[in-house]
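To close the chapter, one final illustration. This time we ask the reader to focus less on the individual chains and more on the assembly as a whole: which components sit near each other, and how the overall shape emerges from the parts.
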Amino acid sequence: MTLTSSAKAMTERVVGRRGEEPTGSSPRARRRVRLRGRAGWFFVAPAAIFFLAFFLYPIVATFVMSLQTREMGQMVFTGLDNYERLLTDPVFHTALFNTLLVLFVQVPIMLGLALLLAVLLNSALVKARGGFRVIYFLPAVTSLVAYAIVFRILLHTDAGLVNQFLGALGLPEPDWLNRTWSSRASLMASITWRWTGFNMVIMLAGLQAISNDLYEAAKVDGAGPVDRFLRITIPMMRPILLFAAVLSTIGTLQLFDEPFILTGGGPSNATLTLVYYLYQQGFQSLNFGYASAIAWFIVLLVAVLAFIQFKTIGREDPT
Amino acid sequence: MRASSDRRRGNAPDQGDDATAAGTPSEPATAPVTPDGGAAGRRAILKRRIAQVAMHVLLVIGALVTLVPFLWIVIASTHPTSGIFSRPPNLLPGDFLLQNLANLQAMTGFARVVFNSVLIAGAFTVIGVVVCSMAGYGLAKHRFKGRGVVLATVLLTIMVPYHVLTVPLFQLMSEIGWINTYQAAILPFIANAFGIFLMRQSFLSFPDELIEAARVDGAGELRIFYRIVLPAVRPSLAALVIWLFIFQWNNFLWPLLVLTTQDMYTIPVALSSLIGLSRIDYGAIMTGTAIAVIPVMIVFLFFQRQFISGLLGGSVRG
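The assembled structure is written out below.
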C-alpha cells in the first residue's frame, strides 16, 4: 500500500503537471522526453530490483562457486577442478544421458503427437473441438508432483491400473518403475501425458494463423492433402515449431519433480536427471562447488541447444 | 478488433465455435462438386465420412487417455490404500474419503498446508502481476536508456531454469535468516521473465495516441497506466494471473528447499513428504492430490478461453 502511494507521488513529481506546459518549445520538449525516460525506468524498476537480487546475484555467485571447493568448511578456489570432475563422473554422465534421452526421444514424439492433434482439431470435419481442446489442455494445469503420484499408482507393478488392463488383454505386465528401460519409458510417457496438450494448443494457434487462401490455391493447382501438409503447413508452422521445441528443451533440462516422485531417480540412477543430480550434490552431499558446476553446465547446454534450434528449425522459410 | 472478438467469446461461446468452424483453413463442409456427378460425388462423401469417423476415434482415445488419471484421482481418493490396489480394480467411488481426509490431517496438518499454499500462491500472484505488468508496460510504451538491454535480458532469462540458481539463493536466504519463512517462498521468482514478456507483447498493440492524449489532459504516468492501459489488456492480465498462480501453486523444488517444517509446507511438499514414508498411505495421498488438482482445474475451466488466448497473445480463436 505504502509502496504504491509513494510510487504515485514519485511519478507525479517526476512527470509533473504536464498538461499545463505548452507543447513545442524545444528545451521543454527535451526535458519531457528525459522525464518520460525516467518514468520508463520507474515502471521497470521493481522487476529490475527483483532480478538483480534473485537472478543476477545468484547466477554470478553460481559461477564463482563453480570454481571453488569446500575444504575444512571453507570455500577455496580450485580453478576448473569441478568442471574436470564433470568429465570423469560416471553418475553425471548417466544423468546427462537420461536427460538427452528425454530430449531426443520424448520431445520429438510429443511434438509430433501435438501437431497431429492440432491438425485434427483444426479440421472442420471434427465436432466439439472446443471440448477436446479443453480436455487435452487439462494436464498442463496439473501439479507436477500430483500427476507424478498418480502415475506412480497407475504404474504399480502388482495392482496398478495399467498392468491390470494389460493383464486383462493377456499382455505381459512389466515391472514399470523398477527396471532400467521401463522406468525411463514410464518417465517419458508421464511427461508426454502432461505436456502434449500444452504444445497442441500452441500449434493450433499457429495453424489458425495460416491463411486459407494458401490451401485453396494449392488445391486449385492439384496438390493433395499430404503435399499441402508438407509444402504449406510445415513451412508456415516453422516459427511455432521452433517456439515449442525451445520451450520443451528448457522444460526437459529442468526435469526434477517427476523423477523425484515417480522413481526417486532409480533404479540405480536410470531416471536421474541433471537437475536431480544438482539437487543431490548441492543439498544432500553439500558439494556446493560441484553442484554449481552442474548448474553452469545446464545453462550452457540450454544456450547451445537453443542456438542449434534457431539455426535449424528457425532458418528462413522458402515461401 | 481484439475487444470485439473477446466480447463475442464472452457472450456466446458456442457461437464462437461455429464462427471458427466456418472460418478455419481446412476442407469445406460440403462435398466438392465433380463434373461426372453422382457416383464420384458419393464416393467422395463416403471417403470424407470414413476420414471423419477415424479422426473422431483417434481424438476420443486420446481424450480418454488424458482423462483416466483425473478420474483415478477422484476414485482413489475415496478408497483406503488396500482399495486402491485391489484386483480387480475398484472403478467406482468408495466411502473412505472422510477417513482419508482425517488421516491426511493427522499426518501433515493438511488444513494448515492448504492455507500455506493459498497464501504463498496468492501473494506471489498479486505482487507478480503488479511487477510483471509494470515492467511489461515500461518496456512496451516508454523509451529510456538501457531499454534494449533490459528487453534482451528478459528474453535470455526466459530460457534459464530457476533450478540452476538454487544453491546460492538458498545460501542467500540462510544468510538473511529467511529459511522457513513465507517471504522466502514468495519473493525470489516474482520477476517472471515469461510474464513480463507476455505483458509487453499485449501492451505493444495499445495505441500510443491514447496515452499521448491522456498526458495532454494532465494525467500522471501511473494513473495512465492503471486507469487507461491496464483495463484494455484484461484478457492478458487474466492469463498472467492464472499463469503465475499455477506456477506457484505447483512449484516444488524451491519450496522443498526453503520450507523446512511441516507447518510451513505447501501442498506439493507435504505430498512428497508422505511418499518418502516407509508405509505409504496412498488413500490419504490421493485425497491430498485431489485437493491440489481440482480447484485449479475448476478455475481453469471457467477462464480457459481467456487463459489460452491470453497466453498466446490472442491468436487462438474459438
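The CA atoms of residues 162 and 189 of chain B lie 8 Å apart. Chain B has 16 helices and no strands. With these observations in hand, you are ready for the problems at the end of the chapter.
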